[in-house]
UniProtKB/TrEMBL annotation:
SUPFAM superfamilies (UniProt xref): P-loop containing nucleoside triphosphate hydrolases (SSF52540)
Gene3D superfamilies according to UniProt: P-loop containing nucleotide triphosphate hydrolases
Keywords: Amino-acid transport, ATP-binding, Nucleotide-binding, Transport
Protein name: ABC transporter ATP-binding protein
A Gene Ontology molecular function term of the record: ATP binding
Residues in ABC transporter domain copies: 4-231
Family in the record: Belongs to the ABC transporter superfamily.
Organism name: Neorhizobium phenanthreniclasticum
Keyword match tRNA processing: no
Pfam families the record matches: ABC_tran
Length: 231
């Protein structure tokens, strides 16, 4: 079953057209990487799904249901959780409070505070401290944990490796693979080819607002992958 599918999607910000006939899908339990250089429209794919960019034509469907774009505050109820670029930890709130913001009471599943703390023990240690006082890697764990609190069918991550040390990126990749093995589908928007290689199974390449290539990551050489993501 396709959790998320875009069919010939065109989208814009105001009068500026950004996406030009994008088609892609993420099946249940899949790990899909959306790759490409800066400014090619990768984040706009997410923004179109949640209504932050204007869908001008084409179809977006979730769980095979064709629908209008899901507003950000409703996405979690629909089974889509997003870890945004830049993490967006809420200032003035503790780690625990930031996690609780991600809860979707109507959705059932294995993820709650204790499960997130078990996944990322540092969050338990820092639970009563401010989320913004943690390191970049710890904040990324917090952003992922907050997304998991909604018990999503699909987790979308936008440039999660940004600003992180290589060893932290490796830990992040291992945790995302564990999530996928537990049944959460992943759409990874990323330029770090190491993270792409460790997490992704299938891939789509974007250029100038369009998907120009797709396939299995195992079929790409390291040099081909670097060529697609090099700035």
């Amino acid at each position: 079953m396709s959790l998320l599918e875009l069919q010939n999607v065109h989208a814009a910000y105001g009068s500026a057209r950004v996406l030009h006939g994008v088609s892609l899908k993420v099946e249940k339990g899949e790990r899909v990487a959306l790759i490409g250089r800066n400014g090619v429209g990768k984040t706009t794919v997410v923004n179109t799904c949640i209504g932050a960019a204007r869908l001008t034509s084409g179809k977006v469907s979730f769980m095979t249901r064709v629908q209008k774009p899901i507003r950000a505050f409703r996405a979690a109820r629909s089974g889509i959780s997003i870890v945004p670029q830049g993490r967006r930890i809420v200032p003035g709130l503790t780690v625990r409070e930031n996690l609780l913001l991600g809860s979707a009471p109507d959705r059932k599943g294995p993820w709650n505070l204790e499960a997130v703390f078990a996944m990322y023990p540092i969050l338990r240690e820092r639970a009563d401290g401010l989320g913004t006082a943690m390191s970049g890697g710890q904040q990324q764990m917090l952003a992922i944990g907050r997304a998991l609190m909604a018990n999503p069918d699909l987790l979308i991550l936008d440039e999660p490796s940004e600003g992180l040390a290589p060893v932290v990126v490796d830990e992040l990749g291992a945790s995302l693979v564990r999530l996928a093995e537990q049944g959460t589908a992943i759409l990874l928007i990323e330029q770090n080819f190491g993270l792409i290689r460790s997490v992704g199974d299938r891939y789509y390449v974007m250029a100038k607002g369009s998907v120009v290539e797709d396939g299995r990551l195992s079929a790409l050489t390291a040099e081909e992958l670097k060529r697609h993501v090099s700035v």
